[in-house]
Amino acid sequence: MKPQAVIFDLDGVITDTAHLHFVAWRTVAAEAGIVIDEHFNDGLKGISRMASLERILRHGGKEAEFDQAAREAVAARKNAIYVEALSQLTPESVLPGIPALLAELKAQGVKIGLASVSLNAPAILRALGLQTHFDFCADAGKLRRSKPDPEIFLAACAGLNVTPAQCIGVEDAQAGIEAINASGMLSVGIGKGLRQADLLLESTVELTWSRLQHFWNQQQREHAPSH
Ligand code: B16
Ligand code: MG
């Protein structure tokens, strides 16, 4: 028994861009007179660009000072700073264990999907040298509802032509785990303190094919109808 597909989040699972997002948000927040720290930034993981800005403005008590046009200008400036920082990414920036897992999934005939809400996902995959490794990447630009809504994971399943019950989803953010669970896939969390992940691993080093296969078989046995 094996899953038909494994669907990955990007930031925090394939590579770690959280610090680059933080530096860019910290710069534009400071320009608006708002101070944010790394702890606050943790709460922005998996949250879309405009929703992240909204949280920052709320944190600084400045929501009323920024109308839609002003918000779009701040988000565009943040993105320009972030995109500039993405030039630091190279194939060496892929998190440990991921290249071996992608190779093993391909060898096993398990489809590989991407469910990132980042509009920069295609550029990030190119910088990492992984653009040909995914069978289907859900388009964040077409999303109507961001994580924790399951929409992006369901779009990835549809693009891969599999049902959620045949898939494993991998995430580093609480909103992402909730999105996977709501889609009906099995969830694997990477990192500490994630609630409701069906399997929680400390880092991508532990995210091996044998670990996933063992987890899959165990779950299928536990949920098999009894005779
Ligand atoms: P962008 P993921 C998410 O990516 C990041 O975790 C989140 O911090 C970011 O705000 C969001 O992408 C949008 O990114 O501004 O590049 O469109 O974790 O879903 O891969
Ligand atoms: Mg993430």
What does this structure look like?
This protein is an alpha/beta fold and 227 residues long. It has helices spanning 18-31, 38-42, 49-59, 68-85, 98-108, 121-128, 151-160, 174-183, 209-223, and strands spanning 5-8, 111-114, 136-137, 167-171, 186-190, 199-201. The protein has a six-stranded parallel β-sheet with strand order 3-2-1-4-5-6, sandwiched between helices. α8 links the parallel β4 (167-171) and β5. α3 (49-59) packs across α4. 40% of the residues are buried. It binds 1,6-di-O-phosphono-beta-D-glucopyranose and magnesium ion (MG). 1,6-di-O-phosphono-beta-D-glucopyranose binds next to α3. The site of magnesium ion (MG) has 9 residues, from loops.
Name the features.
227 residues, 9 helices, binds 1,6-di-O-phosphono-beta-D-glucopyranose, binds magnesium ion
Please give a quick description of this structure.
By secondary structure, the protein is of the alpha/beta class.
